[in-house]
Specification:
Elements lengths: L12 H23 L13 H7 L7 H24 L1 H4 L1 H8 L14 H30 L5 H15 L16 H11 L20 E3 L4 E3 L8 H5 L11 E9 L3 H10 L5 E4 L6 H11 L3 E6 L21 H12 L7 E5 L8 H14 L2 E4 L8 H8 L4 E3 L2 E2 L6 H18 L1 E7 L2 H12 L7 E2 L15 H28 L9
Helix pairs in contact: 6-7, 7-8, 10-16, 12-13, 13-14, 15-16
Amino acid sequence: MPFRKKENGDIDGEMADDLADDLADGMTDAAEDEDDVNLDDLPFNELPIEVQSKRLPKRPKSRRSWLSKLLIITLFLSPFGATAVAMIPVLDPETGWRLFHMGGPQTTITVPGTERELQEEIARGVQDIQDRDRAAQQAANAANGEEQSAEDIAGNLDGVSDLIGTPGSTDGTGGNDAPTPEELAALIEEEGSLDDPIEPDPLRPAPLPGLDEEGSFGRIPRIGDDGTTPFAAYKRPFELPEDTPVVAVMLTGVGLNEQRTETAINDLPLNISLAISPYARDLQTVAREARAMGHEVFLELPMEPADFPLSDPGPRALLTSLSEGENLVRLEWLLARFPGYAGLVSRQGSKFGSLDSAIRPVIEFISRTGLMYVEASGSGVASYGAQLAANAGTPNAIGNVIIDDTPSRRQIDNRLAELVEMAKRNGVAVGIAQSYPVTIQRLRNWAFRLRRHGVVLVPVSAISGQQVTPQSADEAEAARLEAEEREREAMAEQAAQEENAEPADTIEN
């Protein structure tokens, strides 16, 4: 019913109150009617949610339900389990080693540790067995009133000879002459054990007065007023044995890694020479500690290789693209790095060392300083720089074998065996090696049993001048002309390649 307005425009209040009462009565009737509804008469989908949930049939949990819950729990716990397994080798290395090697060949199930520790454990076990057998044999002989024969002694020493290396085996020693049991026993007693620490034999502290002068970047070596050269003053004293093959080893890259440097200084035989990198930190300390131990030290001389810039010799390397003056300035910077080195070792300089205009001024400068020049290319052939040094009367040597061009134990042992065979053929051989941990370990084992094969380990300085024969004046001039011709041909070829090269695409093109 529409509201009527009074004459003054207000709504009729009585009619509005009546309408509100009627609406309230209707809503009350609707609620009462809803309470009177029987839920059993309604369809299931029209029932309230809580009623539907109560009326759903209750089924027992199926296997799929349990598996899904188990999968959820497994996925939740798997990261913790994986972390716990990964921590086993950290908390208990032996248990971790056995766990991760379970099911492998039986030969690998051993006490974990370094190869040296394993060899020592085997050696001790074999030695114990031999001692018991020897004691039993001696007791039996004493009871019978008999003395041991040479065959018995050889039989007792068979196990030891197997441990220290059999002649002809690929253990890095080479050689086919087997020592007699008596000689072998004497060598074992003389050389001691591989575990014995190396006794220091200090060299004179450097620098020595009168053997250096002020350069552009610090003190650099020079020949003393009395004619004493830095090479003669700083090398390791050693007299070559007569009629005996000798080998020398130069270990390069010393000083770049603190732990490897310490191992090389303390664990390697003193006759192994150490070449210190000019880019190492605290060079003076490294050189001082090496000389205090008894090693002679050399300075690495970085030069431009044939595949430059693919192989980068470093920021202060001698380059063919620089002028003679610039290379000599860089050489002075290198020479002033630290005192006490006996000579210089060329690094990578296959290209720089083959050009007369590049290498000749450097060799002349080295000759004036009284240092040794070592060509470390490993080719075994006298390079042009080594030949120039020999012609000038400068102490020199060339590397015959790169020992660890492939840094694996088998390859290193093969190279060492090749080095020994070369020494037996030529009387002298030089090996070049990097300061890798595996190289240091194999060098120590190899040097320990080297003497029994008739070869002596000597410092690199001891074989100076024995590999390169100086040329006569005519031969030296012919070699110079030949080197200049090769240099002109190389420059012409390089210019032709640059001329024929297509210009690179640029924004301007």
